Amino acid sequence: MKRGRIAEMLGIEYPIFQGGMAWIADADLAAAVSNAGGLGIIAAGNADADYVRGQIRKAKELTNKPFGLNIMLLSPFADEIAQIVVDEGVQVVTTGAGNAGKYMSLWNEAGVKVIPVVPSVTFAKMAARTGAFAVIAEGGESGGHIGELATMTLVPQVCDAIDLPVIAAGGIADGRGIAAALALGAEAVQLGTRFLSATECNIHENYRNKVFKAGDTATVVTGRRLGHPVRSIKNQFAREYGKIEYTDISDEELDQFAAGRLRMAVVEGDEKNGCFLAGQSAGMVTKEQTCAEIIADLMQDADRVIGDLKKWEK
């Protein structure tokens, strides 16, 4: 499999991004992915500026390879973190949960490669108009905040609609998924759930085990009422949220009910009350590996699949 344009432009060995998972994608994970030849991405989430700055500086100590920062634009600290990107010389920024337009001039002038996560053609076109370097077309199979379109239908439509490089995300966990993404027109892939199994991923062991035990129907989507649907592994919290979401509970009460649940999962390993974000590919993740082993397996598997497909031409 060829390295591809996007990998060459970013200075990475393989066209594999690690998803920016809040409370999960820290400097340790990002640096390990980058050292293994992919693009590691630190997640800012709702963290404050000091935390994000510290994670960026730690990643610089752990790797001399390119890495990125994911900014959730709904964060109350988004303005400060946008400036930190420039001050700390971050080379790549991925964005989600909002429109990055207000920061594009700042970042483009600093030479930052901005790659928004988009759930639709409309958002992809908006990103192209405002000066994005590329887009991540993320289907609803992914974990965490999701859109409505599936990866299989979203990626080719985005590829047809804009001239920018497209990274496919959502439901990709092995070489077959990578080969499929390339066939749909993408130039790279982003994986989140697969990296939950990484040795360098600092999640609670209960979280990792939940992923290993997950089957194909292990996840559920909640939060559509508030306009920010989230995919997570089914548990007591997810069931309780589903029961009250469309009752007469106020939006504020519903939002408060979910507050802090991801931390309960990632840090505390609370199997009943935590929110265990994971995509539909969780059922394909079965063992713990280092980031280097994960990426090596992905690339070898993709090469095998692509080689098998070429036999059809004969």
Task: Give me the secondary-structure topology.
Elements: H1 5-10, E1 16-18, H2 27-35, E2 40-43, H3 49-62, E3 67-72, H4 78-87, E4 92-96, H5 101-109, E5 113-118, H6 121-129, E6 135-138, E7 144-145, H7 151-161, E8 166-169, H8 175-183, E9 188-191, H9 205-213, E10 219-222, E11 230-233, H10 236-244, H11 251-258, H12 261-268, H13 291-310
Parallel strand pairs: 1-9, 2-3, 3-4, 4-5, 5-6, 6-8, 8-9
Antiparallel strand pairs: 7-11, 10-11
Could you please describe the fold and organization of this structure?
By secondary structure, this protein is of the alpha/beta class. It is 42% helix and 15% strand. It is built from 13 helices and 11 strands. It has helices spanning 5-10, 27-35, 49-62, 78-87, 101-109, 121-129, 151-161, 175-183, 205-213, 236-244, 251-258, 261-268, 291-310; strands at 16-18, 40-43, 67-72, 92-96, 113-118, 135-138, 144-145, 166-169, 188-191, 219-222, 230-233. The strands form 2 sheets. An 8-stranded parallel beta sheet has the order 1-9-8-6-5-4-3-2. Helix 2 runs parallel beside helix 3 (49-62). The chain is globular.
